């Protein structure tokens, strides 16, 4: 069975779209997902299933709508895809260190999209990149490096306007999800 990571967009942010992770884990078990785990309250779910992404995504989104009354987009990656994301960071250690030195918190993020963004939209996005805000598109993932803060970033706002459903995770979360997936893989009996 494959290990999947489901990333829910906009869960438990600013008091909106509230879902208790314990309730979500239990509900996901009722639709046949096994070894369900969650990480923090922002909708990061690991589980095992033999199904493929489109069917899984549809079933999870349907469950969330029926069970919790929320229309939430789910972006998914396999454990292998998450490992490739972590290994493929296009920014150098020096670039990251410089961003960390000037940033007001986290500086490195990955926006994970349902599909690769249209070329013309990515070209438009280039106009919002700056010396202290950089991005690199890799398939259906966009690496983002902020020298100040994602909260006030014009680039981050434009990434959200690519017309492709997406969700953003900071680098620490990416690495934690990868570590959890690797632990799940090692603990198989």
CATH topology of the largest domain: Alpha-Beta Plaits
Low-confidence stretches: none
CATH C-level of the largest domain: Alpha Beta
Oligomer: single chain
H/E series: EHEEHEHHEHEEHEH
Instruction: Output the structural class.
Output: alpha+beta
Query: What topology, given as strand order, has the largest sheet?
Result: 2-3-1-4
CATH superfamily of the largest domain: SP0830-like domains
Give the termini distance in whole angstroms. 12 Å
Question: Can you tell me the CATH architecture of the largest domain?
Answer: 2-Layer Sandwich
Number of helices: 7
Taking the sheet with the most strands, its summary is: 4 strands, antiparallel
- Output mean pLDDT: 94
Quickly count the domains.
Answer: 2
Report on this model:
By secondary structure, the chain is of the alpha+beta class. The chain folds into two domains: 2-79 and 177-186, SP0830-like domains (Alpha-Beta Plaits, 2-Layer Sandwich), CATH 3.30.70; 85-169, Alpha-Beta Plaits (2-Layer Sandwich). It has helices at residues 21-29, 53-68, 79-87, 93-102, 119-126, 154-159, 171-186, and strands spanning 2-8, 34-39, 44-49, 74-78, 108-113, 133-138, 141-146, 166-170. Strand 2 (34-39) and strand 3 (44-49) form a beta hairpin. Helix 3 crosses helix 7. The mean pLDDT is 94.
Helices and strands, with pairings:
Elements (H helix, E strand, L loop, with lengths): L1 E7 L12 H9 L4 E6 L4 E6 L3 H16 L5 E5 H9 L5 H10 L5 E6 L5 H8 L6 E6 L2 E6 L7 H6 L6 E5 H16 L3
Antiparallel strand pairs: 1-3, 1-4, 2-3, 5-7, 5-8, 6-7
Core attributes:
39% helix; Cytoplasmic protein; Alpha-Beta Plaits; four-stranded antiparallel β-sheet; 25% strand; alpha+beta; 8 strands; 189 residues
